[in-house]
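Usage example:
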Amino acid sequence: MPTLHTINKSPFDRNSLQTCLRLANKGAAVILIEDGVYGAMKGNTVSATVEKALSDLSIYVLGPDMKARGVDESKIIDGIKVVDYKGFVDLTVENDKINAWL
Amino acid sequence: MKFGIQVNEGPYNHEASVTALNFVRAALEAGHEIFRVFFYHDGVNNGTRYTTPPQDDIHIVNSWSELAEKHNLDLVVCVAAAQRRGIVDEGEQERNGKDGNNIAPGFRISGLGQLIEAGIQSDRLVVFGD
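Running the assembly step on the lines above writes:
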């Protein structure tokens, strides 16, 4: 079973998202939480990297953390799935390793 | 499924404490078991009952204590990290000659072995923090 990577910092704060996307194995899942949700947005300097990664990885974003930051679903890159906490828990069940990028 | 949770941030660092709380709540709601929550580094600041946020703030320490009581959670504070940050229970008070203690209800102070055990005994170890 694949790995779930968690990213909790904005890609404009640290480079954990960029590093994760570069190193994650094909078929892995990535969930963007807390300030990490900014990495799911369209139209910025990181968007192209994230869009490209979607061909090899499944990317998810935590809906409640988007809402807390006023990030509307219409601003999210196509192909990234919005999940709630239940969905986050389900992802940790589906993937047998959870790798937190701190 | 059995979960081990590691929290590396205090309630007022970033957001990890609240994320971990919400994750634990969702996991319990989905019928999973929380084997242990281990508070490491600044995460030990989740375990002091002297925390007094303004009334319209979320009270993270109390939220952990209430959740622990309701679901019989094992909330473990790392002893070495706790000593550095002044988180004290009765045993530590006596051992280190302190004039009081501040551990919050539902928390206990123990060693890093508890984290290793949580990693071994749990199906998943999920880390929150910085």
